[in-house]
Amino acid sequence: MKYRRTTRRPRTTRHAEATGSRHRIKRRLLLAAVLPALCALGLPALRADTVYLKDGTQILDCQVTSETATHVSLKTPVGNMVVPRTEIFRIQKVKTAYDRYEEQLATVREGDPNGLFKLALWCRAQNGLRKESDDLLAKAIVLKEDHAEARRLLGYLKLGGEWVLPPPLAIRLKASGPNASDLRTNLDIFLKTRRDVVLAPVSDSRSDTGDPLDRCALDVSVTITRKGPTTFYGMSLASPTLAATVRFEAESPWIGKTPLRASATGLVPEKGGTVSLAVQNALGSSSAILHRFLDQMAQLRSKKIEEAFRKKEREADTAKK
Description:
Elements: H1 11-34, E1 49-53, E2 58-67, E3 71-76, E4 79-84, E5 88-92, H2 97-107, H3 113-124, H4 130-143, H5 148-153, E6 157-159, E7 162-164, E8 169-174, H6 180-191, E9 197-199, E10 215-227, E11 231-232, E12 235-236, E13 241-251, E14 260-269, H7 275-285, H8 287-320
Parallel strand pairs: 8-9, 8-10
Antiparallel strand pairs: 1-2, 1-5, 2-3, 3-4, 6-7, 10-13, 11-12, 13-14
Helix pairs in contact: 3-4, 6-7
């Protein structure tokens, strides 16, 4: 939406039209300000720029795509828009985590496993950089085979003096209802960022064969709520939205009597948005939380595998005697 004056009209008319235009664009800008930066895992991430307007409004999670002496073009989660320079107080450009990752990667000396390891740790603390973290760890152990910290973060165990990588943990998804298929698809996309966890095929969802330590049941439920627009001094601050709360509960004999739990929340505009997009947004915006949840499962599983190995060693020693 552009502000452009082509002819000079009476002051009162110009003021009324400008005020109406400002209110219309403000509604759209404020909607952009309350939405998360990512509406779905599959969509490209926006730079986390912030535009501060003179009236106090902040346009969050946007990308400044071009600037002229009179206008600034923006890409926001709710579409593209053009804001006049006269309305802008200042622009703050902030790089995304991936931008900072690329900059730091360029400073790591070639052949430096510890430098790669430190960057991998930083990646693990960010949203959306799990794959980059694991790739860095994999490169570190190529350079230094006995890099214990890197191997353990990748799920390796030292059994009998040798590093052993257990098979990926197969998660048997327990979900029902009209959104079960979409939920499975979205979760499968999310898990592809990891190397140690996979979704078990639907045909194997009831199978109890194989090592119990190689599988786990994950009960997932989705709660959808609809929120109407709020107002401030009679002006709409947001359009109706869909909010998805995804709850996870992991159960297995090796987990114990108390299930492991986690939750994620996502938000999308109701107009043009879907439950599937809201779930994708929940998984994306809460990815660091979910990865910690899965890491907790992986660490507990590793501990049980080590205990089972030591038990077999003791039994073998006893048999020899």
